[in-house]
Write a structure and sequence with these properties.
Blueprint: E1 5-10, H1 20-31, E2 39-41, E3 54-55, E4 58-59, H2 61-78, E5 82-87, H3 94-104, E6 110-113, H4 132-137, H5 142-145, E7 157-160, H6 167-175, E8 179-181, H7 188-195
Parallel strand pairs: 1-2, 1-5, 6-7, 7-8
Antiparallel strand pairs: 3-4
Helix pairs in contact: 2-3
Length: 196
């Protein structure tokens, strides 16, 4: 099997309702070395100061779903074995991980490096950048979960750098038995033992 890496430039900012994410994606693209494989840019509306609409309790939901559909189409066009994402907010991870889950199934493990677990739903928080890991596992908004055909097994997840999860997040992590490490616990030896 030939390895193909897709570079996906995805300046989504609406998932976090935070316009600077757009600039962050552009800066990452500018600072990154030249790609050795295909490069695609997911079309994203320029940031605005106008308030974003909330649909089904999710901020900017129509824009997010359109962007996820576009990202998925660009990924499928290349059918890559690996993807470098230059985003945007955390929701930019949904379509790439969904593709890799379809391709590799339970052979895929996810090391989620974040101070937040991103397992909330619209009931807890309206910004979908905090919903992505839960959606990959099959929980949360139906339109987000619909992008994930092969669900992520919680035993294949480790969250490194988590800091003070909210009560809902802590209960979710416990219920799904997801491995976590606080920032002070992250050491090379522990990371190596988790990865096998």
């Amino acid at each position: 099997m030939t390895s193909k890496t897709l570079r996906l430039i995805f300046p989504q900012w609406q998932g976090g309702n935070n316009p600077p994410y757009y600039l962050g994606s552009q800066l990452l693209s500018f600072l990154s070395p030249e790609a050795k494989g295909p490069v695609e840019i997911v079309p994203v509306e320029l940031p605005t100061t106008e308030p974003l609409p909330r649909i089904n309790d999710i901020t900017a939901k129509p824009s997010l779903i359109r962007q996820l559909n576009n990202a998925a189409a660009l990924i499928e066009k290349h059918d890559p074995n690996s993807i470098v994402i230059l985003g945007g907010d955390c929701l930019v991870s949904l379509a790439p991980f969904a593709h890799l889950l379809d391709k590799f199934g339970d052979k895929l493990g996810v090391l989620w490096i974040d101070s937040h677990p991103d397992v909330q739903t619209a009931e807890q928080y309206p910004n979908a950048h905090a919903h992505v890991l839960g959606a990959l596992m099959g929980t949360g908004d139906n339109d987000l979960v619909a992008h994930v055909k092969t669900k992520l097994n919680p035993s294949k997840i480790m969250i490194a750098g988590i800091h003070a999860p909210l009560p809902y997040e802590a209960e979710y992590l416990t219920r799904h038995n997801i491995t976590t490490l606080a920032p002070e616990q992250v050491k090379a030896v522990q990371m190596k033992s988790w990865s096998g």
